[in-house]
Amino acid sequence: MGGGIIGTSTAYHLARRGFTDVVLLERNTLTSGTTWHAAGLVTQARYTWGTREVVQRSLEAFRGLEAETGFSTGYVETGTMNIATSPERFEEIKHQASIVRGNGIEAQLLSVDETLELHPLLNADGLRGSLYFPRDGRGSATDTTIALARGATSRGARVFEGVGVTGVLTSHGRVTGVSTTSGDIEAEYVVNATGMWGREFGARAGVNVPLQALAHYYVITEAIEGLPRNLPTVKSGDEYAYVKDEAGALMVGFFEPGSYAWASNGIPDNKGYVHLSEDWDHLGPFYEQMVERFPVLADAGIRLHFCGPESFTPDGQYHLGEAPNLRNYFVAAGFNSVGFLSGPGAGSVLADWIIDGRSPIDLPETDPARVQKHETNRRFLEARVVESLDLSYEVHWPFQQRSSARNLRLSPLYGPTDAAGAVFGELAGWERANWYAPEGVDREYRYSFERANWFEHSAAEHTAIRETVGMIDTSSFGKLLVQGRDAVAVLNRLSVNDIDVEPGRIVYTQWLNEQGGIEADVTVTRVAEHEFLVLSGPATVNRDLARLRRHIDDSEFCTVADVSGTMAMIAVMGPEARRLLQPLTDVDLSNEAFPFGASREIDLGFGYVRATRVTYVGELGWELLIPAEMAHHVWNLLRDAGAPHGLRPVGYHAMNSLRLEKGYRSWGHDISSADDPIQAGLSFTVKWDKPGGFIGKEALEKIRARGVDRRLVQFVLEDPSRQLFHDEPIYRNGALVGRVASAQYGHALGGAVALGWVTAPDVVPRPWFEEGDYAIEVAGHRAPARASLRPLYDPKSERPKN
């Protein structure tokens, strides 16, 4: 649904692949939503690997659509220059130059003189250089949309304007069609490409699509005599603006702070070609900055001051994929003002996804299942989405935290962790202690591409778990209670590992799709014969819950409940963990009596908790699941008893550095639905011969028989002064072979440590991935790195099992 560039692209690419029984419905006219006023920029510098790949697909469409359909897209290759006028911005573009090379994108760091040579209209005052993308361009959003629509109809798709969709028809958790102002239409698939109406349209089918329309500005001057044509687009993040030439004039567009929500109570259904009121009081200071940067603007008259609404999302990332709770309902909305440059590629991805049953690009960051219920709340959206626009052109710092709509979901241990000096970050609405500030240290983030202000404090927490003991408030982790006569059958069908173990055991497992890709990475504790507890990440619990429910047959007796908020959880980890806990309980915690993988209810202090001997940091320890009302008692008990053992509260930054040293995977960062357990080094979890098999087994067996040409490899930089973050390109013997998935500083290993995907030219023996001279490019510098398929820290995993 939706006749903008994304809807028409989806129809076109479906028809191009022979899927011609396609109907596109637009309640007004094509392009009348937000496509008609798109600025037309095509820039490749997105902030994730997957969304850059989407733009690569868009470029293929822009470059080939006219030859195929006979209709022009207006696309011209002009290049884009991201200029830097501050040291922080120049450091950012150096990192960005390296990162985009991992996608094969051409990017050149230019000096001030080189920048001015390419764009002589710039004022050089304060300029430090630029990052130039020579293959970027620009086009006409309206012309491209019409070309896509004509290309779709020429292959048999049908496009109807003036037809509104009033509802989505469903049966047994699957779409069956739509109701329209002209009658019902049966449909096997429905795509919500309704732009800024996506939230309201999704709500009609019970699908959460959190987005909010914001006021968004650009200015077009009168014609400027002698203006060169097709100059590179200039983006100045420090001045919140971009500039491009257009028909002998200049367009100056803004991503300025201080925007505002429009129609947050619901956008009127009959609205098309929306044009909001001018606001020079707001925009004037930002335009004046650009007059200084482009002196030619000083004498140029203004032909158009345009303000049109654009939809933005809480996390600044669009939604592209299947809804978690409604089969065959796909969302393509919330494009944060990059819909034109992403639209042709997004439609191509959706078409392949619908036809092939899986996304051709790894895009966990756009998954609609990441949505939290509170994110569709109007007041939350008004606060958080405005911040998304405010930050669009700011420096994108590592570990940057949002400041709006905070203190929403609080752990039962929020008070004690706050009293201990916690500096909180936010994930999925949860306030989580990322690091702890010692007394006298400011509890704030000071962002940097080098060692951040919290580096040494997180290092001390890391060291405590490696050498003594630490405790981590992990209460935000998702907890799903699965019960019923057929619970074991449901979980075993989903899981690659064997869940049918004795009560009191925990099992680490993956859930796969039919192609063998990893859809979930969880632990399952068998509490009783017909009762299981599934632990998931805070950002993935909703998608895991939906997947569980989706795979319970109507004939099976099995229920699933999200019980995340009913229990606190503390991970007590480190060599001293047993000596700390043993005096606090009557249960024997010895290795013989309480082995690794055991899970039992034990007395602790004056109450009872579920203690599970497992680890995500690579040390001896127990995860304690605690009734929420007893959380303070247990925290205080551990705090007071822990002093002689060197106990420290530990935050999530340290937990991340600890798990990376041990090579433990994180879904959505290191592994996702495009990766299989063999590539990911998780074959040890797969029970090939368990009764009944598992979803994805047939595909995985074919992968095992064929062998793999791609593996997840652990790296540590040889230079201890270098930092890694994510997406940095990996080179082997001088050739680009992959990218970093996630990284942090490994304090026990003495250098930045990362998990990264490496691709070989063909199926190769396992040792190939560890051999050769590896380097990881960081801000233009190739840093030598050591590679390993086994954990570089405690490779035999002896420490957690002693």
From TrEMBL:
Organism this protein belongs to: Nocardioides oceani
Segments forming domain FAD dependent oxidoreductase: 2-353
Source superkingdom: Bacteria
Family: Belongs to the GcvT family.
Record domain Aminomethyltransferase C-terminal: where: 710-794
Stretches assigned to the GCVT N-terminal domain: 416-690
Gene3D superfamilies: Aminomethyltransferase beta-barrel domains, D-Amino Acid Oxidase, subunit A, domain 2, FAD/NAD(P)-binding domain, Probable tRNA modification gtpase trme, domain 1
Name the UniProt record assigns to this protein: FAD-dependent oxidoreductase
FAD dependent oxidoreductase central domain span: 356-411
